[in-house]
Amino acid sequence: MFNPNSVLQTRKIDVYQRPYVAAAALPANTVGADDAWPVPYVKRGWTDGGVGFTTQQQFTAVNVDQVPDPLYQIGGARTLQIDATLAELDPGNIKLVAGMGTATTTPPTATVLGQDELVIDAGASSLEINTWGLNIAQPLNNLPFRVLIPRGQSTGNIAAKVTPTQKGVANLIVTALPDESFTPSRLMVVRQVTPLA
User: Fold this and answer.
1) Is residue 146 part of a domain?
2) Distance between CA 101 and CA 16 in Å, rounded?
3) Which domain holds residue 93?
4) Residues 6+ apart with CB under 8 A from 9
5) Which 8-state DSSP code applies to residue 11?
6) Alpha carbon distance 10, 196 (integer Å)
7) Which H/E stretch holds residue 15?
8) Domain count across the chain
9) How far apart are CA 70 and CA 60, in angstroms?
10) I need a labelling partner for 54 at 20 to 30 A (CA). Which of 29, 110, 136, 151 fits?
11) Torsion-angle region of 142 (φ positive above 0: left; ψ -120 to 50: alpha; else: beta)
């Protein structure tokens, strides 16, 4: 049977991030599409152009001289990613997208302005691993459709050109890495919450 809720097109989309911990999981199904994910997940702000996820797998054909068609194929490289253009260009999002630097916050006082700051030092950068999730409201029943990369590395870029007609954005691309805290190791979880019977 056809399911119109599987035709995903909506403005109710969010990107969530948290520092990586072993066995990170999606929120419970009782957390609705309009509800914030539980702490320590952080909503990364507005997006521009939607959110997405991709899977790619390469295969190598095994051929022999006696037949023209492959006997079988061997699985090769596999890449799973989520992507979003973060419209909120702040030091925290820049750090997460670029995967480098140290972000700090100095809260304001009654007499001194506060600040958020990102410092990127020279030399080797450390590998930044986080848990990333997409939260998408299904169009008719408003239940969540979610994608989770339990352990991922940002491989995005910053396009911070700001003009009167163009905003600076952070192009988030997160590549899944095996999360070996699961058996077998986990790369991605996709969940479509369905209504009560």
Assistant:
1) yes
2) 20
3) 10-52+81-192
4) 139
5) S
6) 22
7) strand 13-19
8) 1
9) 9
10) 29
11) left
Rg of the chain on CA atoms, in Å: 20
C-alpha–C-alpha distance, residues 68 and 109, integer Å? 75
Q: Classify residue 122: in a domain, yes or no.
A: yes
Give the chain's length: 197
Confirm if 177 and 152 have CB atoms less than 8 A apart: yes
Report the C-alpha gap between 84 and 48 in whole angstroms. Answer: 8
List pLDDT tens digits, range 114-160: 999 999 888 766 778 999 999 999 999 999 999 999 999 998 778 78
Residue 173 lies in a domain: yes
- Residue 131's identity, in one-letter code, is T
Structural tokens at position 84:
């979003």
Q: Which two tokens stand for residue 129?
A: 């691993």
| Cβ atoms 174, 96 nearer than 8 A | no
The residue type found at 16 is Y
User: Does any domain span residue 169?
Assistant: yes
For 19-52, how does the pLDDT look when each residue is reduced to its tens digit (9 = 90+)?
999 989 999 999 999 999 999 999 999 999 999 9
Over the stretch 71-120, which tens digit does the pLDDT of each residue have?
Answer: 999 988 889 999 999 999 899 999 999 888 889 999 999 999 999 999 98
